[in-house]
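Section 3.1: Structural characterization of target chains.
Under the original work plan, the team committed to producing a structural model for every single-chain target entering the pipeline before any wet-lab resources were allocated. The record below documents one such target. The sequence was received from the expression subgroup and is listed exactly as submitted; it comprises 288 residues.
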Amino acid sequence: MDQRVDQPVCCYRHPDRETGIRCTRCERPICPDCMVSASVGFQCKECVGQAAGAHPRPRTVAGGAVAADPFLVTKILIGLNIAVFLLVKAVGDRLVYDLGLYAQCTDLQTLQHVGCGVADGPDQWYRLLTSAFLHQEYWHIGFNMLSLWWIGAPLERLLGRTRYLALYLVAALGGSAAVLLLAPGSLTLGASGAIFGLFGATAVFMRRLRYDMRPILFLLALNIFFSFTWANVSWQGHMGGLVAGTVIAIGLAYAPRERRDLVQWGTCAAVLVISLALSAVAVAQVTS
């Protein structure tokens, strides 16, 4: 059956959703919400129910449980970012230095160590993650939260809550690790590293589902261009998050069904360990 990207069809249960996947039993087109993983390809819920005698618990394309509110985690992440932003506005910039990411705080005039950073002990490593929820400017949090909703919400529905949250947090840590390695002296903050991880994951799953990749590739190329051309933008964090998110998504999207959990969570754990190890290497370089 021809499933060319240039001639998309719509899901038989959701006529407003284009798809390039068909049920391997009845050959009707199905969207991610209607897919149930089979030993070969995907089947629609009706065919699976008829074969088993009862409808199974619905699963996402990546094997996660289908939730009543498929966007709940994205809403919570946006809420946390906004809450921290409002706290910064209420408390002042001191909170930025308490939660932001840097290896060591150095006085540029005296070159003396004047503040705590990740290199000042294990009790400061929380900055690898808190910095990803920290924003100081209105335009910064506005742009990031809009991107998180536009990119994150569809991806959460595709992956399921647990896998989506793991992808987001580990991508954020990957971005932090890249910053410590490549720009240890700069104060870095923002959710951009994690969001770039979601960009990479979206591209992987669009490829996996045979969707037209031109829109996401254009958006990704545009954001990469801005990362390297705009002032005061951490391209290191962006690229670190992008690489981490892409690698995790490959494990999520292409894990064999019989070893799905092992491959998926093993990939997440491997990227997490590598991110922490690279952060440790960066800290060692600063303190040596």
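Residues 201 and 249 are 5 Å apart (CA to CA).
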